[in-house]
Amino acid sequence: MRQIIAGTLLVLYLFSTTELHQFLKFPALVTHFAEHHQDNPKLSLWQFLCVHYAHGDVMDADRDKDLKLPFKSFDNCNNTNLISLLPELKFSLVEFFSPETTIELPNYYSSFLGASYLDSIWQPPKQV
């Protein structure tokens, strides 16, 4: 039972976050090849794939059908966080990462030495 649930969650995750769902458009590829093969019986599957995938976007009469082929148009992949879908696992990152004590950082401008102090460095040596 655990393997079935794990496999189902993995498939759902991969289909929603990658372009793996493009393989669901495979029947459209088969029917579109059948239409082209009916128009031109000498057309091989390799020639069909070369025309539709290797030579860039072709602006022809059946462009709307061409865009329905797998990996022809890329859909927006959503990276869905499964933890946010489960209401029992709600937690606050602010509470998790908030420090217990605040740290005072030194203010470097308060210990700044004025120019009058540094002017004595650049004076020529004096004989005492």
Structure description:
This protein starts with a helix and ends in a 9-residue tail after the last helix. The chain has a domain of 65 residues. The protein is mainly alpha-helical and 128 residues long. The protein contains seven helices and no strands.
What is the CA-based Rg, rounded? Answer: 34 Å
The number of helical segments is 7
H/E topology pattern: HHHHHHH
Spans of at least 5 consecutive residues with low confidence: none
Question: Shape, please?
Answer: elongated
Mean pLDDT: 76
- Which structural class best describes the helix and strand composition? mainly alpha
Q: How many strands?
A: 0
Distance between the termini: 95 Å
List keywords for this structure.
7 helices; elongated
SSE diagram, text form:
Elements: H1 2-17, H2 26-39, H3 45-54, H4 63-66, H5 82-85, H6 93-97, H7 115-119
Describe what is shown at a glance.
With 128 residues, this protein is mostly helical. Helix content is 45%, strand content 0%.
